[in-house]
Amino acid sequence: LAWRLASAVAPPQRASTLLRFAALAAALPLLATLFRLAYYGSALPNTYWLKMTGWDGRLDAGLAYLRAGLLHQRGFVVAALLGALLLRSRAAFALLAAALLHLGYVAHAGGDELPQERFLLPAMPFLLALGCAGLTRGGDPTPEAPRPLAWWRGVALTALLLLSGTEGGGFLPTTEDPAQQARSRAERENSRIGLLVRENTGEDALIAHFWAGSAAYFSERRGLDLLGKCDPTIARQPAKPGLMKPGHNKYDFAYALGRQPDVIVGGAPGNATLGYLRDVFTDPASPLHGYRAFADLYLAPGFRDPYGRCPPDAIGNHARMPQLVGGAGTRLPDEWAEASRAFHAIFVRQATPRAKPPAQWQTPALR
Max Cα separation, the chain? Predict the structure, then answer.
């Protein structure tokens, strides 16, 4: 839009049309901001405070994310650079500048903690268009009168798109994507957890979550987001030193446990021992060190007595964990108990009137 405005030379009505369009485009985010101020009391979304403030390592994390993402999507990147060089037009360089502007913001914002570079996606149409236009029209006398597509350009374009799709993951119909298959299984277990919580807690129960998505939605209960994405108190705190996963480096268990949630849905499986938690989540050399919050929960004051009720050597042995759903004396069939044992541990606060004791939890009645 900025490029179109800058290039809007006579006639005057063309410039006025663009200006009206620009005013409309600006009005939409302005209205959204006014709504946020009226409803949430903040001009910026909660995730801005969570991910963009109080984090000294944000730029380092963003640059690392950008380097890995561009390397993974190198087919699109090479195609765009070649396209811009072959076209050598103002429009091509404007598209390239728009893509670079977005990529620069991604680095400034600290990147993302999820795989497959979803934050790079808005730049991909620009890069793909440049690659296609450059290989089909680059070097023509005029863009308005292109020569027929040379055979070598067709072969190069096809090869480039196949390379880009294969490297991007899941672009071709036959491309398997193990990471997304695992994600689908995780969402199935999250849904089961939510249904279990709904069946076995009162409507006024407070449920604390690390993965506050499907589990929180299907529970139909008040949620407490332990990682602050939906909690302004946690979002405005400083990030924990050394943790480089945006959205996972702020947590305050003194505050969260002080609210006495009736159920806590952990981030580690119920069969995880203290040794496993230490090696996987607290060792700086571990690839999962960014999720240290999952292990720190077990060591937080206020967790062991009401939610653990077992000695340290019993952690991970579900038969010796009375407050674990699927633990000692459970009535749940294995397919439901495994959601807590092998995926995300579900702990019930001792003697809470708003949730059944773990041994009495029942399979949800699906409707």
Answer: 81
**What is the DSSP pairing of strand 222-225 with strand 346-348?**
unpaired
Which has the higher per-residue pLDDT, 351 or 22? 351
Return the pLDDT at 170. 45
Kindly give the pairing relationship between strand 263-265 and strand 222-225.
unpaired
Q: How far apart are CA 7 and CA 16, in angstroms?
A: 13
- The rounded distance, in Å, linking the Cα atoms of 104 and 146 is 34
Residues constituting the chain: 367
222/224 Cα distance (integer angstroms)? 7
* Total Cβ atoms within 10 A of residue 6: 11
Stated pTM of the model: 0.85
135 in Cβ contact with 163 (< 8 Å) = no
What is the spatial distance between Cα 307 and Cα 260, in angstroms, rounded to a whole number? 10
Rounded-to-10 torsion of CA 183, 188, 191, 192 = -140
Q: 39 is written with which tokens?
A: 């409803």
Secondary structure (DSSP) of 61-72? HHHHHHHHHHHH
Q: Which two tokens stand for residue 273?
A: 């021992």
Identify the three-state secondary structure at position 345: coil
- Alpha-carbon gap, residue 279 to 222, rounded angstroms: 33
Q: Which of 213, 186, 194, 220 is nearest to 346 (CA)?
A: 194
Look up residue 147 and give its two tokens: 């020569």
Alpha-carbon gap, residue 257 to 251, rounded angstroms:
11
Distance spanning both ends of the chain, measured CA to CA: 49
Please report where in the chains the tokens 């119909």 appear, as a residue.
Answer: 173
* Alpha-carbon span 254 to 297, nearest angstrom: 10
Task: Give 188-247 pLDDT, tens digit per residue.
Answer: 999 999 999 999 999 999 999 999 999 999 999 999 999 999 999 999 999 999 999 999
**Is the distance from CB of 221 to CB of 203 less than 8 angstroms?**
yes
